[in-house]
Amino acid sequence: MKPSIRPLFFFLAFATPAFSVLLGVDNESDDRTRIAEIRATLEDIATRLDELQYKAPDVGTTQEAPKITTPLPTIQIDPAPKQRTSTPVQTEKVPASVDSQTKDETSLEPRGIGFYILPFIGIQTTNDLEWSSVGGVFDIEESEGMSAGLRLGYDWHNFFADFQLSYFQNDMKSINIPLDFSGETEGLGVHISTGGRVHFNEYIAAVLGAGIGGVDQDVSFQLSGIAVEESDLLFSYQIFAGLELRPIDYLIIALRYRWMGVEEMEIFSSRNHHLAELAVGYVF
Amino acid sequence: MDTQQYKATFYDYGYQEWFEVDRLYSILGGAVPGQGGSVAGLGYYYRWDPVVLEASASDNYKFVGWGVDLDGAEPVHTFEAVKDMQVEASFLAIPSANSSAQEVVSGAVQVLEKMDHLTETEKKKSLAELLIFGKSATSGLSIVD
User: Fold this and answer.
1) Does residue A113 or residue A124 have the better pLDDT?
2) Domain boundary, last residue among A58, A75, A106
């Protein structure tokens, strides 16, 4: 055998685990052990080649290569999990900390399961509000508003349930009557929501949920200096979808789109809110 | 005698003025807005002829008063013809399933524009009152039955 083959085995001994990492080969918990076995096997082959080269006389390139009588161990590159090479190999002792980390990375076990508190803030728009006056129905256009709130809940592996307290506010922009006009809409909502979570990896998950509750809504405006106001506690419902990022244990950063419907009032129409919210919270 | 050049005249002590005996006075005008209703009794009259004007509202409209050379809020107005007159009967759209809110607003604006005794601020306030309460204390108008 040519001496140049030996570095090839050394290369394979160290490149194989590297490739397996780079190519994202399945990281099962005993992969490291298998890689260690393969590495040991390749080193064994390299050692035997060294011995053969040492024992052989000077061999010219024209002479026949010496025959290897000792059987070389076979390498099972892609065995079934329980198929092992019969050659005894030296296994590496993996520190417990490394082992636990490997298990954590490969099992997609989400971080932070338990009770959580999640304050949020966001921006929101609504559909046109309608005012049912004595003279007919008029459209009120509202400007973009803000929302803020707090979610208190519990996380399971793929599900969650929470209690949400939220506030929203919109300024009124215009009404289709040629008169001086200004006003605002604000509300305080309480919702109970539940939903599911799809984990993309240990850190990122998609969230989808829905909830029902009530909103104490106050709508008021001034038309040529005359005030119009209505306040009521209204049924409300919401659905939402978003992404959750958990960069470290106990920390949640969440982005979500929330659609919230609020029941109609006596003189004002129902409202559909479209909210984009950012939340940063803590998982106990 | 040239009766075309020299017309017979009488003196009206009531109004303290001379008038031509065969002179016809025009009592003309109409409804505001046009689709709001109609006015009966318009035409040409000799002096002292009784004139009876009657405003009739269309469906979903309400008569709110006379304007220009005539005052009052009664739909039937009786008087003697003693001069040429222009009259307008004002109608307001009553909110209904057949009328839009914009029709109500534009009708009210038209009527308020003709109320010269109101300032611009009072006209706007009156429009707001009509839409919010159905009645305006500022102008006296109403869009409710």
Assistant:
1) A124
2) A106
| ipTM of the shown complex | 0.72
Nearest in space to B72 (alpha carbons), one of B93, B50, B92, B87: B87
The SS3 call for residue A147 is: strand
Identify whether the C-beta of residue A256 lies closer than 8 Å to the C-beta of residue A241.
yes
Nearest C-alpha of chain B: how many angstroms from A244?
A: 47
User: Does A225 lie in the same domain as A131?
Assistant: yes
Q: Are residues A224 and A268 in the same domain?
A: yes
Total domains, chain A? 2
Q: Are residues A243 and A168 located together in one domain of the fold? A: yes
* Whether residue A91 is found in the same domain as residue A135: no
Task: Output the average pLDDT for chain A.
Answer: 79
Shared domain for A234 and A160, answered yes or no, is yes
Q: Are residues A135 and A54 in the same domain?
A: no
A227 touches chain B (CB under 8 A): no
Residues of B in contact with A180 (CB under 8 A): 124
Residues A257 and A158 in one domain: yes
- In this complex, the residue of A137, A176, A179 whose CB is nearest that of residue B128 is A179
Residues of chain B short of pLDDT 70, as ranges, are 1-4
What is the tens place of the pLDDT at every residue in A59-115?
444 455 555 555 555 555 555 454 444 555 555 554 444 444 444 444 455 555 789
pLDDT tens column, A262-273: 999 999 999 999
Predicted confidence band of residue A36 (pLDDT cuts 50, 70, 90) = confident
Nearest-CA distance from A227 to chain B in Å?
A: 9
Binary contact (B128, A223; C-beta < 8 A)? yes
Give the range of the structural domain holding residue A26, as residue numbers without chain letter: 5-106
Residues 6+ positions from A43 with CB-CB distance below 8 Å: A9, A10, A13
A223 and A271 part of one domain: yes
Question: Quick count: other Cβ atoms within 10 Å of Cβ A236?
Answer: 24
Q: With 80 as the cut, is the pLDDT of residue A13 above it?
A: no
Q: Which amino acid is at A50?
A: D
Last residue of a domain, one of A106, A136, A167: A106
Write down the domain spans for chain B.
Answer: 23-133
* Chain B contacts to A (CB-CB under 8 A): 95, 99-102, 104-105, 108-109, 124-125, 127-134, 143-144
Hey, are the CB atoms on A226 and B101 less than 8 Å from each other? no
Neighbours of A272 (CB within 10 A): 13
Q: Who has greater pLDDT, B49 or A275?
A: A275
pLDDT tens profile A239-257:
999 999 998 888 999 999 9
Ramachandran class of B140: left when φ > 0, alpha when ψ lies in -120 to 50, beta otherwise: left
